[in-house]
Every structure is written in C-alpha cells, then in structure tokens.
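Exam revision sheet. Question 4 asks you to relate a sequence to its structure. Input first:
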Amino acid sequence: MKTLLILRHAKSSWDDESLDDHERPLNKRGQRDVLRMGQWIADQDLVPEVILSSTAVRAKLTAQGVADACGFAGKIHFSSELYHASYQNYLREISHVEKSCGSVMIVGHNPGLEILVNFLSGQETLRFPTAALAYFQYESACWKDIVRENVRAQLIQLWKPKELF
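Answer key, structure tokens:
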C-alpha cells in the first residue's frame, strides 16, 4: 500500500505586478495556511518520505513550509516539469519515485492538480482550492504503475485549510 498526498500551493501574492508568475511569493493567508497544513499532516501521522514540488516560488515556499511544520527530514525534489503541469506530467513524476518509498507528497498547481485528484478518485466534481490536501491510498508495489489508465487510488480524505481550524 502506498500513500499519496497531493497539495496545491498556498495562496500567492499579487502585490508586485512586475513579478513573473513563476516568481510570485505567498501572501499572509498563504503563509498561515502552510503552517496549518503542515501541522495537520503531522497530527494525522502522514509525514511523507518524499516531497516533489514545482519550482515556482509559491510552490517552493509551500513545500518548504509544510515540510518544516510537519517534521519532514528529507530533501525536497524540485522539478520545473511540475510548473503548471498537466495531470499526466504529475503522474509521470510520481511514477519515477523509488519502489521502496511508501509515501509521496506532490506540490503544484491547478488546473493540473485538480484534474489529477478527480482522475485518481474517479470523480469529476471535486474542487481543489489553494492549500488543499488530498490523501490517497494506492494499492501497488510500484509507483510506476500509477501511469496506467486503469489504475485508481482510493481517496481517503480531502482537506481544505478553512475547514480545519
């Protein structure tokens, strides 16, 4: 059994209009939600073994903040392939995780992550706002099997920061 956590980056700032989209940081709400979600992951005993993240500043700050808040001790793997990726790109990145790893968290962007959550769950109407966290269990010995079209993971829970506190 594998555990897959899908985390959308927290709310970003639009204060500096001169910044390229890739360079936008988190706003105050985003910073607060990062801490909430990281603590929630720790409280649920879901600290991942591996974290994969987009290279966008808002995603990196989300991944790093959540990792710190939940007690993640590993190295975060940043990939430019996850910046505004399609759901297929997210699946491809997950499929490269070592077989021995039992839990992965991926941090990225909509619409790709929302489509991924809906695809893996077999649903079509799940909304995935900023800092939302989807918790899936995946029955396979290998992460590479996740790219097969007929593979579905079981959605255990979908948490949104506003609903937690």
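Marking note for examiners. The beta strands are 2-8, 50-54, 76-79, 103-108, 133-138, 154-159.
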